[in-house]
Fold these 3 entries.
Entry 1:
Amino acid sequence: MLGIRKVSIIGAGHVGESAAFIMAMKGIADEVVMTDIIENLPEGKALDMMQAGPILGYDTKIIGSSKGDVYKAIEGSDVVVMTAGFPRKPGMSRDDLLGKNIPIMKTVAENVKKYAPDCIFVIVANPLDAMIYAAKKVTGFPDNRLVGQAGALDSARFMAFLAMEKKVSVKDVWAMTLGSHGDDMVPLREYSSIYGVPVSKCVDKDALEKIVDRTRMGGGEIVKLLGTSAYWAPAAGVCWMVESILRDQKAVIPCHAFLHGEYGINDLPVGVPVKLGKDGVEEIIELDLSDEEKALLKKSADHVKEVCDRVEELGLLK
């Protein structure tokens, strides 16, 4: 992308501030805007990060916006990241947040459409499957400019657990999950490897099953420990995606994207490997799945459809 690379983050909570900080540290964007409805919160966090720049060696301009028309500050953004919303609490599923966070998404999406109509819209807030569906309904953006951050996070959790199990560097591990961002996600054993060897061949079967289960429940485990949702790993997943978009890296990253026949799924946002570049989702990568994996992915997609249908039934976008 030519000119100043601008990213706006809606929501200056833990995920938003962590993402802004990582982007600054890595020099992903030239300008990062954080907005929030809590007065002075994003301004204070932005100023704090700017004062860390001379010590840590970054020049990224970080701006907070919480007063007046807070969304005007996102004008001209190349990428807008949606992190705003109520976090999960112990005992809550992601779907329990439906009635709380969809109305927030409606307001945000209307303003993204108004002030950053050409942006790539990256959705992080839960329940993710429903949030990206709502974003499409409200903005009318083409599917390539709507992408959800879930698979990047879930895959990173899978990789971390595999590295812990084998006591190896995370740099030697690659792993991938498909499907919904929840208990129906599909960790892919045959497409996950440690130093190039499929995990099914180098990790004990029982240990691997425990890792798969822990990956599926990874968010809930954090919620039980912290009393709220994770933030560093989700923020890192966001930055992985945003960097590939802004630098046109064409990285293949597991993300939520709208499918149109790929994997036998139509008009639903489902987690699959996608090529991310300057135009957003530039290609859906279709993997040769086993019959079991296909069945699990279909089950996951069916759950996504149920959640999206629920948004319509409850009239949350009216």
Entry 2:
Amino acid sequence: MNDYIETRVDMTPCDEVATDLLADALCEIGYESFVPDENGLTAYIRQESADECAVDEVVKTLPGGNRDIRVTHTFVEGRDWNSEWEKNYFQPIVVNDRCVIHSSFHTDFPKCRYDIVIDPKMAFGTGHHATTSLIIARLLDSDLQGKSMIDMGTGTGILAILAAMRGASPVTAIEIDPMAHENAVENVETNGHPEIKVLLGDAAMLGGLAPVDLFVANINRNVITGDIAAYAKALMPGGSMLLSGFYEEDVPVVEAAAAKHGLTPDGISTRDRWACLRLKKL
């Protein structure tokens, strides 16, 4: 079993954008997995790849203004990481009594109409975060039969998988991180939906795709508002867009950016201050 270094980064102030940017930067220097929380980020890297000086440089150049940042490194002896996930991070989750999300190593979980197997390999997207569960709830309440869909920033692929289970077709999932992309490919195959096209890239990929009936993005406010023009072009007139990854107070900012591209508000749901915004294309 592999030995790891656990790197803990505490930040004040701390927000989701900061932890996302930090995770992206740490991924570039070899970190494999990330657990964000309200105070910062815990990241893991194999011991032989660890470089504290590289981490110091990442922290020093982190965008977003002045922050009080404290970094600690801890040796973690090799262990059964699936067991660690099951015990500490990833328990089965049920959304609206209709969808259960669990890992292949779980044996005790409720039975639901939609059964999704996600092996996250210590990556994002297990359904536990409020933003993911908000979009899952929306997908469960939407008529997806025969509807084309793009899942932007798919992560583990969970939203694309659920949409395909509910009859959406064709479904395209796009992910910028190579490790997450690989994980999404594995998860769509595990769930019996290899027809889902999983692409590696960013919003630039959208220009080569046909417009769809439903566009989903669970990322963060800055990425969404920066790429909203490309998102709008990827959506058919009359189509719907589900956006999450931002707080309730960010909704006016997202709506204002969306309005410039013919997207109008069509409902909002919230949980723990997080928001899921539905938009319609005129």
Entry 3:
Amino acid sequence: MSAAGSVRPGLRAWLELGWFGLTTVLFRRRDPVVGSLIVTDRCNLACRHCAVANLRRVDYPYERLQQDMLSLYGQGVRILLLYGGEPMLWHDPTRTVRDVIAAARAIGFPWVGVVTNGTRGADLPEADLVLVSLDGTRESHDAIRGRTYDRILANIRAATRANLCLYMAVNSTNVADVEAVAELAATLPTVLGVSYNLHTPYPGTETLALTPEQRRDVCDRIGRLIRRGYPVVNLATALPRIADFSAPRPCPQCVIVEDGEQWTCGRCIETPGLCEQCGFFFAYELSLLFHGHPAVVLEALRRYPALLLRSPRLVTRAVR
């Protein structure tokens, strides 16, 4: 069976995830459930905020990725995200990232997402969610990522399934564009919403970091967007704890793997002091969720199933 025709997540898998969440909260388990797999560190862009691409310039062999996925699944990971570099560049020798998704399905992962810069296409109907980096309006985005905004928007509009999510890293260059990205997401038929992060100041990218006042302001603005009904996938109840850095971290329920090496939460954990400045919203949200923060738990129960259990719809277009 092709990857596009593979079976979508079943009730059993989601009951398993529910049980994981319940027992993690009750018994303070630290087992991982979300895994990020680096399939390549090659990238076709040189984004100002990135410090991890094109360090080795390799595509990890298909067999290596299979071993890493088996290891993650054996640890209890059920939500898998494929990262780069740029994962759409990955090949070995004739396989593409679609074959990696198919292998993940065969192993048993009920939910597989891909994080891409969108310049090599964004149409991956095999994935449950495709997170496409779009860092503001055209002017801001192109200042950060090079002149790619129009190409990415064209690829988003050309996708055949509504399984896309805009992925914005808010920094000092694009801080004014938070609302504009949410407004754009609401107009695109292939896009489910927007997921925000704040810039994590890896060495060499410190000038893009937000001030504490800007961080609080951005979190307040995202909260207002959620209350106004914009398609934002972040959790409003977690935003105050993200704004003031008070959410517990690192998050042991998140792991990242590259070429057989594994880190808890993210690679920033290796850099002294960087974890304390993390801008990765999802890790904050999961950390609060699995610590049993009541408001976050209730909001996650209300909003996450709609994202995780949905079946991406086919996008129909008028014949010209």
